[in-house]
Amino acid sequence: MRKLLQQLEEMHIRIAETATHEESLVKALGDALARLDEQLLADVQSIATEHEARRSAILGELQGLASSIGMFQVSRPAVTARADIDAEPAAYIPSAGDWREAMSNIGEEMDAGPTVTTRAPFPHERRPSATPVSLVERRRRVAGG
Length: 145
Prior knowledge:
By secondary structure, the protein is an all-alpha fold.
């Protein structure tokens, strides 16, 4: 019985030592993670500062460009009236694939009325009776009753 108690006591000591060791490992891991968090935060802050500096520089360049637009006036030749301005415009001759001609064709087809072409009905269109079937009747037919 003494031997069993001694073994239990040794086991208790080993468990306490293991727990202390694991506790120190967890604390070291927590410290390492805290250091990495602080380093990451510092990196993000430096990146944000650099970004803001680049953004300010680009904004300054854009404002400088905007203020310089219109500084250099290009001399343009004087506009004179054409001699044929009062002449009758040439008649419009549509080319192949012209949308104006297509629109006039659509208009002519609409005036002529609908063209009915007969075709064979699809299977779902063939019904023995033209009267609509109620939902209750459909369910009864599906159920086989």
